[in-house]
Amino acid sequence: MTQLEAIVQRYYGDRPVIQRIDDALRAAGVDPQSPSYRDLWPFDQLHSRGIVATREQAQRAGLQAGMYVLDLGCGLGGSSRYLAAECGYRVEAIDLTPNFVEAARTLTARCGLAERIEFRQANAIALPFLDRTFDHVWSYAVTMNIADKEGLGRELARVLKPRGRFWKTTSCVRARIFQRRDRRFESCLLRQ
Ligand SMILES: C[S@@+](CC[C@H](N)C(=O)[O-])C[C@H]1O[C@@H](n2cnc3c(N)ncnc32)[C@H](O)[C@@H]1O
């Protein structure tokens, strides 16, 4: 594991998330053991503008019925549940942070969606999937955490089916450096 990956896991993984979500659900009058996936929206969308932004990305991404989708860096599984429950896609989800994967599984089971989404702990640059598996790779607020953009591009090109699509939204602070790295990543994807 690289130093950055260890930092990412520590940063996202050192909080007891389920307990906090349970408390917030109870305060909102929802039984934490059997929430609807919609009850989780205030807590499970780990990016700015929450479910509104997730919905926008789903509309723009050109997903079609029956597609097989990978949620890359799924966090608490908020996008995965949205894509499975609201759009009907088959979803696999991976995340580097074990705590998040465990919480994503628990929340998904409580919503009755466990049959529809498979969560695994994995690194985006070493995906545990066969070549040409997915129609679409979805990523929200993740790639800014990954330094090895060429490795990521190679892995995405490997697991996507021919004509499959990768769709990402990401954050950046130092726009010029970021854009340079991102261009390298995009050109690597295009070369594959
Ligand atoms: C800001 S959160 C976004 C989570 C989710 N996509 C969402 O929008 O709710 C970033 C996530 O990226 C994951 N992540 C960072 N680097 C990763 C990597 N190399 N492989 C897989 N997941 C990674 C983190 O563990 C964290 O869950």
Sum up the structure in keywords.
17% strand; 5-stranded parallel beta sheet; 5 strands; binds S-adenosylmethionine; alpha/beta; 192 residues; Rossmann fold
Characterize this entry briefly.
This protein is α/β, with parallel strands linked by helices and 192 residues long. It contains 8 helices and 5 strands; from the N terminus they run ααααβαβαββαβα.
Describe this structure in words.
With 192 residues, the protein is an alpha/beta fold. It has one domain (3-191): Rossmann fold (3-Layer(aba) Sandwich), CATH 3.40.50.150. Helix content is 45%, strand content 17%. The chain is built from 8 helices and 5 strands, in the order ααααβαβαββαβα. The chain has helices at residues 3-13, 17-27, 41-44, 50-60, 78-85, 98-110, 149-159, 175-191; strands at 68-72, 90-95, 117-121, 134-140, 160-169. The chain has a 5-stranded parallel sheet with strand order 3-2-1-4-5. Helix 4 crosses helix 5 (78-85) and helix 7 (149-159) packs parallel to helix 8. The longest helix has 17 residues, at 175-191. The protein is globular. The two termini are 25 Å apart. The chain binds S-adenosylmethionine (SAM). S-adenosylmethionine is lined by residues 5, 8, 12, 45-47, 73-75, 78-79, 94-97, 100, 123-125, 140-142, 145-146. The site of S-adenosylmethionine has 24 residues, from helix 1, helix 5 and strand 2.
